[in-house]
Amino acid sequence: MTSRPYRTLLLLYLAGLAVYGLLAGPRLVARPPHEHIALAEALLHGRLDIAQPLASFLDLAEFDGRWFVPYPPAPAALFLPAVAVFGRTIYHGVLHVALAAAILPAFYLALRRFTSETEHSEHERLWLVALLAFGTPIAALAVNSNVYYTGQIAAVVFSCLYLAAAWRGRQPVWAGLALGAAYLSRGAVILAFPIVLAEIWRTRPAGGSFRTSRSSALLRFALGLGALLALSGLYNWLRFGNPLELGYGFLGWRTDPEIVRWGLFSYAYLERNLHAALTSLPVLLPAFPFVTFNPEGLSLLITTPVLVMLPFLRGWTWTAWAALLSSGLIFLTALMYANTGLVQYGYRYAADFLPFLILAMALAGLRVVRWPVKALILFGVAVSLWGAVHAGWYPFTADLDLRIRQHTLLRYR
What we know:
Elements: H1 3-24, H2 35-44, E1 61-63, E2 66-68, H3 74-86, H4 92-100, H5 103-114, H6 122-134, H7 138-142, H8 147-166, H9 172-183, H10 194-203, H11 214-240, H12 257-262, H13 270-279, E3 283-284, E4 291-292, H14 300-303, H15 318-335, H16 354-363, H17 371-393, H18 398-407
Antiparallel strand pairs: 1-2, 3-4
Helix pairs in contact: 1-4, 1-5, 2-3, 5-6, 5-8, 6-17, 8-9, 9-11, 10-11, 10-15, 15-16
C-alpha cells in the first residue's frame, strides 16, 4: 500500500472523530457509570467481578454473591490502557467516539481490497464508507456510549478488520483473530465466517504445497479464531464454572414472563422484530419536535433506503453470496431475539450485519455513479444523522415517551 492510502485512512479517521464528536454533543463529556469501564478497572486489580456495583448500571449478573458484567469483554480490554491512566472517572464518551471513528478507515481498507477486483472507483469507495458510517443506525450508536452500543461499535470495527484480513484468504490467522475479537464484542457476529471460507476456496489451490493450500489457510484461520474462543471459554469458566455460560442466565430481566415462556430466542418474537426492522415508521407529534422516532425502532428502509437496491443486483459472485449469507444469519438471530433493541433510534441490531450486507451489495454490482443511488444514500445519511443528533443532544426522556405513547400505537409494549 502506498503512502496515499495511508493518508486516506488517517483522514477518514479524523473525519469520523469530527462528525461523531460533534453529534455526540453533551454526551461526549458525560461520565455516568459504565459497565465496560468498571470491568476494565476490575481487570487492572486482578478481578473479574465488579467490586462495588451501582444501581445506575444497566445490567449486571449476580452469581455466588458477586456481580459480573455479562456482556462480552473486548470493549473493556480496549479501554483498559486508558482506565489504567485516568481511572474510572474517564470520559468514556470520548473513548467510545474514538473507537467508533475507526469504522471509517477499517471499512475503507476492506472495500479497497475487495473492490480492487471490480470496477469501483476511489470515489465510490468513499461513498460506501459514508453509507456505512453515516447512513445507517450505526451513526446513532456512535454518539451514545452506553454498554450496549459500545459493544456493537467494537463489533463493527472488528468486523471490518476481519473483512480486510479475509480478502483472498491471504491473512487467515488475522481473519480468525479479528472475527474472534468481534465475537468477544457481539456474539452473533461469529456467523460471518462464510466470507473467509469463500475467499479461501476461490483463491487457494486444493493441492500443492501445504503452506499455500486451502487446508493450511483453513487451519490457520481456525487457530486464530479458536484462540479467542478458548479465551472466552476460560473467562466464562473462571466466572461461572462453565465455559459456555455467558452470564445472561443470571440477569434479573430473565424473569420476564415472555422470556420464561419462550426463552431468549424464539419464533414467537419474529413478528415484532420484523416490524421494528422493516415497517416501523416515525412518530408525528402535534408540538415540537413534530417528528420523532419510534423508540421500538425505525425501518431500515427509512434509515438506509439504498437497501431497496438489493433485489435488483445481478452480479453475484461466490464472495458476494457468502457476505449476503453472513448478514442473513446474523439478521436471523436478531429476528428471533427476545427484544427489538429497547429504546433506540433506527434498528440498532442491524449494525451487526450491515458491514457484510453493504459489501455483498457492492460485490454484486451496486455502483455509486448515478444520482438515483446517490440520492438514496444521501437521504439515509440525512435521516441517520438527524437520529444521531436526536440521540446525542436530545436524549429520550420520560416526557417524550409520554408524548409518543399518546400519538402512536405501540402494539408491542
